[in-house]
Specification:
Number of strands: 0
Strand content: under 5%
Order of helices and strands: HHHHH
Shape: elongated
Radius of gyration: 44 Å
Number of domains: 1
Largest sheet: none
Distance between the termini: 137 Å
Structural class: mainly alpha
Number of helices: 5
């Protein structure tokens, strides 16, 4: 019974197979992004177009150099191989970009939340200052009060008889 392999536990063979092939995911991702960037350039399209034109020209017009006659099966195989490698590399580069975009969006959301909290705090402080200023005496109010007091003093002086200074007489 002990020699019977368990089906619910992965076999050790799978671990041994992956042990010799250890790739750094960041290095593979950077390589994929480099390839994807190159595949999306005009230089790549121009070089590929020149190679295809030369390939077809040599196989059509140079009879002695003909290695891939008219249906150009070898050329199609080369395009298929290129597509087979380019598509996963481009998808890997897009996945890495999506991860970077997700992290950036989370940072933007956090920054927006902090900005909103700061703005709300400043709005509350500004409202408190406006209320406090409304309760303070303004310059015009103080001037008006001083003018009223000074005019009241003048009226009181006119109503009351002046005292004579005993010394001056």
């Amino acid at each position: 019974m002990a020699d019977t392999p368990r089906l619910d536990v992965p076999s050790g063979g799978a671990r041994r197979f992956g042990s010799f092939l250890r790739l750094n995911p960041d290095a593979v991702g950077q390589f994929a992004e480099g390839i994807a960037r190159f595949l999306g350039t005009g230089r790549f399209l121009a070089v590929q177009t020149i190679l295809v034109v030369v390939w077809i020209s040599l196989n059509v017009f140079a009879v002695q150099l003909r290695w891939d006659p008219y249906p150009f099966i070898l050329l199609n195989l080369a395009f298929s191989t290129q597509a087979a490698y380019a598509a996963p590399l481009i998808l890997l580069a897009q996945n890495r970009q999506a991860d970077r975009d997700r992290v950036q969006a989370e940072e933007d959301r956090a920054r927006a939340t902090q900005t909103r909290a700061d703005t709300e705090y400043l709005a509350r402080e500004l409202a408190a200052l406006r209320v406090a200023i409304g309760e303070l005496a303004t310059r015009d109010f103080i001037r008006g009060e001083l003018n009223r007091i000074s005019s009241d003093d003048g009226e009181e002086r006119r109503d009351k008889p002046r005292r004579r200074d005993p010394v001056s007489g």
